[in-house]
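User: I need a structural model of ABC transporter domain-containing protein from Oryza punctata for a docking pre-check later this week. Nothing fancy, just the predicted structure tokens so I can convert them on my end. Input:
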Amino acid sequence: MDPYRSSSSSASSPAAAAVAMGRRHYYLPARPARPISFEDSPDWADDDVDSIHLATASASASLPTTAYPSPTPSASAACRGERKVAGATLVWKELSVSLTLRDSSRNRRRSADRVVKSSTGYALPGTLTVIMGPARSGKSTLLRAIAGRLRSAERMYGQVLLNAANTRALPYGSYGYVDRDDVLIHSLTVREMLYYSAHLQLPGLFSSKTSIVEDAIAAMSLADYADNLIGGHCFTNSLPAGERRRLSIARELVMRPHVLFIHEPLYHLDSTGCTVIFTMYQSSTEVFGLFDRICLLSNGNTLFFGETLSCLQHFSNAGFPCPIMQSPSDHFLRAINTDFDRIIAMCKNLQDDQGDFSSVSMDTAVAIRTLEATYKSSADSAAVESLVAKLTEKEGPHLKSKGRASNTTRIGVLTWRSLVIMSRNWKYFWSRFALYMLLALSVGIIFNNAGHSLSSVMVRVSAIFVYVSFVILLSVSGVPSHIDEIKIYSHEEANQHSSTMVFLLGHFLSSIPFLFLVTISSSLVFYFMIGLRNEFNLFMYFVVTMFMCLLANEALMMIVAYIWLDTYKCTLTLICLYVIMMLVGGYFRIRGGLPCAVWKYPLSYFSFHVYAVQGLLENEYVGTSFAVGAIRTIPGVQAVGGSYEISSSANAKWVNLLVLLAMAVGYRVILYVLLRLNVRKHMRLLGSCYCWSWTPQSDY
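Assistant: Understood. Predicted structure tokens for ABC transporter domain-containing protein:
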């Protein structure tokens, strides 16, 4: 007999279940007293706090007494009764979420089954509420719905109330949201990461945020790692996974939120002091004993909401008592997870080709329906409805949006942070610096001692084209850092820590000194090794042209990085673009001789190489002449004409420079539009919606 299933007689006999529960005691650890942080955050009034505690007590009294020995509540209850907390009361009533899909064969929309179905629950100040369930049970969708962060294809029905006030979007600064992935900056220390986050989120002077950051470090027990680089370096290891998760939570705590939403935390949530709601697949026995309330989901249905110990009693009443020495969360998931049945069925089919899937999966379906029906008719459900009604009778303190840092401050913080990152990140600056210097030396040696006769013109044209082409091509070494920047921006923009314009300006300003440094260093080597004209103004034009070329190329790289967010795909795309630009750059074939369709119009007009090489050659040869024989000379423009097409106008080189500047600005405008419209999100949703059956990457 499957120890996670009970017989029908057990399900129909509460007395037998009680006897079984009496034989199979399950002891849970007592909850430690939790220190409350961030005392200066707005609190409930004294009468409001008392009413919450009275409501909780009355509701708890109406719940059935569990057969399991409960942890001693006196110390923790007294501790909670003596202190105010910085949290808020959050209630969701009859909350459902549906997902709109698209039928690719008929090119029309259809409404999918509801991902979350009529869920009701609450979270009180200073408590831990866990949303638990198997994969694709709807727990992540429910968390996003409560936090007001549903995707565009998802639609919510029902109510979410913050301090009894109906709200569709929580006020800025009232909540923190920690996603499943830890998006951190490896080049910063733990303390630096939190300092920059505080400066981006909070108004006021820099010095006033020191205590806030130190509080967050203490709350997450990160003091031992505060000065460690997140990504480590050659002498130290990177931050462990557990500490990285703590840091992600601490980053949201610097705002001192009233409510904290977390996907799959590892541990250490007791000291946050705010209302915490989080999802979890399963937990150990020790961690399970720390939860105040549990919302158990399966296929979008609420199988239980209430005290964690009462959930064990609920399973026993439904005929599924927890075996002795079995973790409660393991028992819950084993009873309601259809994935286990599919594995069992596959194993049976390996032994017998005539194995019947339906007979196996029916057991879990019955368990889910039994648990759902038992909960709906139980005193636990009635107690939840009663307490929700009490919590929504009278509005509590109205939570207003907190002040945020000005855009000017944010731009300054992002610029300085990017400068620090670039100086430490070898992928962005040091590798490119080394590659550019090696390129300049190599090209300079190959084309050295070309002389200054008419025959040297073609040699220098080749040298300039090769230098420009490979400087642009080698810039792909900076792709990983651009991808990291885009990921950090996406996370900060989703949590309202930054904005599109702030990010673009900060990145643009911080990239200027590094691009200029690598440009002037490599240009010095190349310019004088191949023997270009020794005039300061001509050399500075050379440097500025190469700088503008790299500036435009950086924007193009950011666009490609945003579209793919994958190093291999970005590198492949950029190399293909650069090869095409080289082919239409006017060196392998004069630009006027290119096929008009596609290659000349429009490809050659989008090539950096055309304007950079034209400008540099015009800078070098306009106004010069070369002797042909003893008495005849030809202008430099004519001498170049056989190898490259340039203009004889003295202002032509400035036109090419302006075109490069326009490209640098234009590509950033395109990037702004893409980021502002969140095009990547819509592309991802469109791709996932063009099917009848949709399965997310991990969980609903």
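Before docking, keep this in mind: The mean pLDDT is 82.
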